[in-house]
Amino acid sequence: MKDHAMQIPTYEDMLAAHERIRPHIRRTLVLTSDYLDEITGAQLFFKCENLQEPGAFKVRGASNAVFGLDDDQAKLGVATHSSGNHALCLSYAAGRRGIPCNVVMPRTAPQAKKDAVRRYGGRVTECEPSTTSREEVFAKVQAETGGEFVHPYNDPRVIAGQGTCSKELMEQIAERDGGGLDIVTAPIGGGGMISGTCLTLSTLAPDTQIIAAEPEQADDAMRSFRAGHIIADDAPDTIADGLKVPLKDLTWHFVSSHVSDILTASEDEIVEAMKITWKYLRIVMEPSCAVPLAIILKNKDRFAGKRVGVVVTGGNVDLDRLPWIK
Amino acid sequence: MKDHAMQIPTYEDMLAAHERIRPHIRRTLVLTSDYLDEITGAQLFFKCENLQEPGAFKVRGASNAVFGLDDDQAKLGVATHSSGNHALCLSYAAGRRGIPCNVVMPRTAPQAKKDAVRRYGGRVTECEPSTTSREEVFAKVQAETGGEFVHPYNDPRVIAGQGTCSKELMEQIAERDGGGLDIVTAPIGGGGMISGTCLTLSTLAPDTQIIAAEPEQADDAMRSFRAGHIIADDAPDTIADGLKVPLKDLTWHFVSSHVSDILTASEDEIVEAMKITWKYLRIVMEPSCAVPLAIILKNKDRFAGKRVGVVVTGGNVDLDRLPWIK
């Protein structure tokens, strides 16, 4: 396992990532809605990463890591710890290359998530739901398999892969009407998508503002941004379960250098924005993805009259438990 | 009000319709899923008409009728009776042309539907939930307004408009991989979408089979097809509420001439297929649209190894009442 800490990925790494992963990902739809434009006063372009085959943008970074391995390392496969979309997407990418993928998941993770990882060919090893247990079990799994560790976000290969999303978005907007975007907004958890967006736009469209969207109840990135150093919450609780993790050194580098602002939304605002999107865009998306629309609806003056790209990050939802149905 | 009965639309009418409506509709996404291909054994191409701005394919036929009116008639606007997507889409199209749209809806129709019609600028007049009342009230509204009657499906302008969907689908499949489709399947209620599909494919792709999908509990089209004449059910009850209406002379013409088969699915099978689509395609679609996937899952031998186009007809769902959540 190499130490990727502070190997800051470059714009060229992102371009190379796009060439590498193009056969394995989708150029996802950019969706608009007259109605959502009307109620926000902005012109919104939703980049639908929920429509990736495994349902999340994380297939970009995972594919870049998997298909960038040399043949010797590839034989040993990849490994990660995650109970969310990264586990799913890494298993999917590894499955496409035909190499092993080992995932350590808390035994308390939803059965559906474990099943989905296995469906893509990933091998699940359970740990107790604590950091100590996860680290112990992961070290053991990695020692046994020799699989390359692919961190969910604090990894230059992953960030370069996520950066391909905003490259595609800018290309699609230009094809549509020759224009650009005033703002791109995406949710922030560990900061992988936002870092990739910073990586790409700081070169490709330096005048486009990047505004990160975070749940009020897990606002560690916003507080870090204001304080000028990483503040990690102990155990934030929010319906936007993809956004509970803290920033790390690599993602903090991008967030502190290129993000214009971080805005937050309450749990009710997130649920309301989620339902509005399901209703008017008619796509299935996770609570985490609703945070950007929630901050737009909450801060209309910041977005009115602007052309705004909104990254819809994922669509893996427990359909039996929708937050607006009690 | 002209009598459109048995003015059978031609392939040229469909081509003219496509030119006419192109600025007012979306060229909707064609979505695929490795997982759904795996469980069906077929290669499925989902034409996502739920992603039209007003959420249904019916915007095609409605736009063709609205934008085909001469200026004198246009001033008087359009009128219809419908409690579903046709009312919404006709209001939307009339709104884009800036002409009046009068809709007669049963007072028992969901408030959300009435609100949606009004949001697009349609004027709602309520009737009692009976055919007699609907006809009386509609005659009165039409006498007062002089609006052109646009039937939800038994209208050559509407059928020609719906036919543009399979034209686009065939073009998109050809762009994707140069191939064609062995089968196109769509739900059947009154038969507007299926008739448009017949109109287009009988000229454009005469070897492509057209298989209609119908709820077991509203199987009047299937029984008509087997009997060789129209059989109308009195009051069918199914969760696929867009599919309760009977065939009429124009749609029967197409169904009886060009449809290869009509297959049915039970209520449970429809709900299961609906949930599978939400989960793996991550799109919001109505129960009616799930019937095609339900018949594919039920008749795998008929579809295995085939390239199958599936028309996802609409996405206007009551999100507070999902059929798999009790």
UniProtKB/TrEMBL annotation, chains A, B:
Q: Can you provide one Gene Ontology molecular function annotated for this UniProt record?
A: threonine racemase activity
One Pfam family linked to the record? PALP
Q: Which CDD domains match?
A: Thr-dehyd (cd01562)
Protein name, UniProt field:
Phenylserine dehydratase
Q: Look up the record and name the cofactor or cofactors this protein needs.
A: pyridoxal 5'-phosphate
- List the InterPro entries: BHydaspDhtse, TrpB-like_PALP, TrpB-like_PALP_sf
Q: What class of enzyme is it?
A: lyase
Give the PANTHER family listed for this entry: SERINE / THREONINE RACEMASE FAMILY MEMBER, SERINE RACEMASE
Name all Tryptophan synthase beta chain-like PALP domain ranges: 21-314
